[in-house]
Amino acid sequence: MAFLLHRLRLPCLRATCSSAHPVKVSLRPSPQTAINRSVLPAVGHITLRTTQPSCRDFHTSPRRSALPPVAWVVIRAVAQIGSIIGGRTLRKRWQNLSDHEKKGVKTHLWKNKWFVGTVGSAFVLAVIIDLATHFQETPITHRKRYIAFTEEQLKQIVDFEFKMIMEDVKDNVVPATNAVYGLLVKVAQRIVDNNQDIDLLQRQKWTLIVVDSPEENAFVLPTGQIFVYTGIMKSVKTESQLAFMLSHELAHVILNHTAEKISTCQLIDKMIILLLAMLWFFIPTDGIAVITQAFFKKVVDLMLHLPYSRALETEADEVGLQLVAKACYDVRQSSVFWNVMALQSELPGQEGQIPEWLSTHPNHENRASRLDELIPEAIELRNKCKCLRLPDKDPRDEVAMLRQMAKAAVQPSAS
Ligand SMILES: [Zn+2]
Fold first, then answer.
1. How far is CA 61 from CA 132, 149, 160, 212, 315, in A?
2. Are 375 and 396 a contacting pair, CB within 8 Å?
3. Helix, strand and coil in the chain, % to nearest 5
4. Which of 180, 153, 184, 170 is nearest to 58 (CA)?
5. Local structure of residue 381 (DSSP, 8 states)
6. Whole-number Cα distances in Å, 105 to 94, 99, 101
7. Cβ neighbours for 353, distance < 8 A, ≥ 6 positions apart
8. How far is CA 81 from CA 56, 169, 291, in A?
9. DSSP state of 33
10. What cofactor is needed (predicted)?
11. Which are the catalytic amino acids?
12. DSSP 284-347
């Protein structure tokens, strides 16, 4: 599925850049924008990612025409098996027909072509209506996308997920008196306070949960629970980088990426069910059909799910950059952050990055490059928000030098 993200449009024209410098950091949150100093625990499995569910293991409850996710998991499995059996049965029957009988079937279909055409058209129309009535526009980036869930339904889903996460990490949650916790609250509050134009950011009740763990991990639930593992702090070198990391997570919530991803997965599942029946009907033997089905699933992952996931990550980076710009952070540190992550992944003993085309996330270098393209606009936005001028020394130069040194260190041993 081609997924076209709109180019980042910095919203300064309509933004109330409320953060005229010097930025005032409010540690006394208003009732609506409070970062809840919760002492709750949390876990996650992804580095710098939201807990966006995969199509296979996330349970949700739907809106209007969408099927409840828990029910959908069962229905999907039954429907997929049914479509395979149905397609295969029809093929076997067709193969067992004599030439005369096959001709009779074709003649019968041709005689009833208007009925067949009407049924087919009604199906296509139903699909178009479903898509048309569930399309929404993302805030900020103004991208059209399919959403089949209401906010309330998503909340019910995520509440369950949240309880499970808490159960896992409850013994490792750091208290609100912890220094890391204090820093994170300060940074998150500054971002929220200085992006007053983003309604959801203000309406959302945010809860910060810091987990004492060496794991380098940070993520957010769509209902506003931000989880940060203390291990991630090793990769964060400045407050601006920390702000960018948090902003990326906040952006996932603002853009409602989780609901979008679940909805899209469900839509793709429905198409797969239909295609499986056709595949098992038209492929002449069971053996070839099994191989084709496995190949087909891999293609769906590589061509649809993974690029789609990467597009959402890129969008969260872009919007996150705007959030930190309006909060008067050094936006250049966003690029530094990903370049440093890239360098770290190349260190001896590290596993390195998996190829981007096999990953749910863009690789670190590409994220840095994309941010580099957007940084001039982000600096402009910063200026419009009357932030202090950035230091002349660009922190990206230092990383570029480190990269050159790393290359130089590798080249002699390679020759
Ligand atoms: Zn992410």
1. 20, 7, 11, 32, 25
2. no
3. 60, 5, 35
4. 153
5. H
6. 9, 10, 6
7. 342, 345, 359, 363, 364
8. 16, 37, 16
9. T
10. Zn(2+)
11. 249
12. SSHHHHHHHHHHHHHHHIIIIIHHHHHHHHHHHHHHHHHHHHHTT--THHHHHHHHHHHHHHTS
pLDDT tens digits, 213-235: 998 888 889 889 999 999 988 88
Distances (CA, A) of 317 to 177, 217, 257, 334: 30, 16, 13, 9
Q: How far is the CA of 192 from the centre of ligand 1 (A)?
A: 18
User: Which residue would you say has higher pLDDT here, 361 or 354?
Assistant: 361
Question: What are the structural domain ranges in the chain?
Answer: 20-68+138-414
Q: How many other β-carbons are positioned within 10 Å of the β-carbon of residue 147? A: 21
Place of tokens 């992550």: 341
273 contacts 76 by C-beta, under 8 angstroms: yes
Say how many residues make up the chain.
415
Kindly report, residue by residue over 147-160, the tens digit of the pLDDT: 887 778 888 888 88
Location of structure tokens 């625990």:
41
The edge-to-edge listing of strands for the beta sheet with 218-220 is: 35-36, 206-211, 225-229, 218-220
Q: Which DSSP letter does residue 355 get?
A: P
Q: How far is the CA of 248 from the centre of ligand 1 (A)?
A: 6
| pTM exceeding the 0.85 threshold for the entire prediction | no
* Residue 132, Ramachandran bin (φ over 0: left; ψ between -120 and 50: alpha; else beta): alpha
How does DSSP classify residue 14?
T
* Residue 408 phi, psi dihedral angles, 5° rounding: -65, -35
State how far the Cα of 273 lies from the Cα of 126, in Å rounded to an integer.
16
pLDDT of 153 reads 80
Q: How far apart are CA 6 and CA 19, in angstroms?
A: 26
Alpha helices in 97-217 (DSSP H): 99-111, 113-133, 151-169, 179-193, 199-203
Q: What SS3 class is residue 193?
A: helix
Residue entry with tokens 């203390």: 230
Question: What are 123's two structure tokens?
Answer: 């199906």
Which candidate, 6, 17, 5, places its Cα nearest to that of 325? 17
Could you give the percent of the chain with pLDDT greater than 70? 81
154 CA → ligand 1 middle, Å: 18
Q: Distance between CA atoms of 262 and 52, rounded to whole angstroms? A: 8
